[in-house]
Write a structure and sequence with these properties.
It is a single chain. The protein is an all-alpha fold and 71 residues long. It has one domain. Helix content is 56%, strand content 0%. It is built from three helices and no strands. α2 packs across α3. It is elongated, with a radius of gyration of 15 Å. The chain starts with 8 loop residues before the first helix and ends in a 5-residue tail after the last helix.
């Protein structure tokens, strides 16, 4: 896992596009607010899917930054 200190201010300001659905945004909002979801429930699966979208986008951005091509 990378630390904030591993990146320059410019790298940290790089825009990272992630396509979220309304469900993605709502479940993330609820989770950040402290809500928890029953394992295997629709909301739990929605949270896992939304977090996976973030993880994929972060992985792509880390590669982009490592290659020196932050656009």
């Amino acid at each position: 896992m990378s630390l904030f200190s591993d990146y320059t201010a410019q790298e940290l300001a790089t825009v990272c596009p992630v396509e979220f659905t309304l469900q993605d945004l709502r479940v993330l909002q609820l989770a950040l607010g402290g809500d928890t979801f029953a394992p295997g429930s629709n909301w739990d699966r929605a949270l896992v899917a939304a977090v996976e979208k973030i993880d994929v986008s972060l992985d792509n951005l880390r590669v982009q930054v490592a290659n020196g091509s932050n656009k």
